[in-house]
Amino acid sequence: MSSFPRSLLPMLPVVAAEPFDSPHHLYELKWAGVRALAFIEGARLRLQSLSGREISAWFPELASLVGQVGGRDTILDGEIIVPGPDGAPDHGLLSRRLSAPGAIGGAACVYQAYDLLFHEGGALLEQPLIARKERLAHALRGPGPAAVSAYVDHDGVDYFQAVVARRLPGIVAKERDSPYRPGQRSGAWQEIRAYESGWFLIGGYTLGVRKEAPVRTLLLGEPTPRGRLRFVAQVEATLPGVDFERVLEPLTTAVSPFQGQPDVPRLVYWLEPALACEVNFAARDADGRLRFPVLVTLRPDLSPAECRADRDVAVPSPRQT
Known about the structure:
The protein has helices at 91-99, 129-139, 156-165, 244-248, and strands spanning 12-16, 22-29, 34-41, 44-49, 74-81, 110-119, 122-123, 146-148, 151-154, 170-175, 185-193, 196-210, 213-223, 229-236, 269-270, 276-281, 283-284, 290-291, 294-299, 314-315. The protein has 321 residues and is mainly beta. It folds into two domains: 12-194, 2-Layer Sandwich (D-amino Acid Aminotransferase, Chain A, domain 1), CATH 3.30.470.30; 197-307, CATH 2.40.50.140.
């Protein structure tokens, strides 16, 4: 029997340049939801975010996940999503949930489980990924708020093309025999993105002219070693159901958090750089600015340290094997 850990940090992928086929890998959807480890002790569920923060109160309907697990003292790894009408992750609905933590509203979330780290008193971290997935499929029983994340074998290129056709975020290639390395970014997991995305801190905003949408744009930045923000983009503040004025007002400050003055030809209201957001974009220019950025969702579950420019590590994709 192994001692049940009070805390773990999730294993992280590197970024691959392109999709590939391999008999040594399996391929999963990049859910682009809220990454969370689910700790089940007795009759209690504890959800832990990417940075180790407890976020159980944000998603009260997931408490019934306890009843789905056969065997107590269990740790799952997965992502919290809000599915849309077609079953695919709906980032707009997720945004509403994240802007009002703890309020179910009508947009119920699903926990997409893709790994099993601890079960029935034993640690599974050193077991091969494929063995952990087989245990996971048996551990989640009956109806409930969790689903086992599906995967495909071998055909990474075809799977990626199918994901792109459905306008989904991308895929993750994982070595079938790989152990789980908590808190480490490992080449055993490779993320292949359908488009570029990132997490950035909101350091200011500009006002619009419409009374129903007073916040027009958000000024985004990445933390520098000196504690300031490096300006990367100005993005339209458009998320259905999100009251930006209410969300941003408590963060208002008289001092700019940016190093240098962002090139924004409008009056700017500065903010404490404490609130993160997720943004899709086409590419970066030579200065690191985002081209054609689109706001995806607010991410209050993330810490400023998780928005560093160096948090992603890119590697070449392996050759087809």
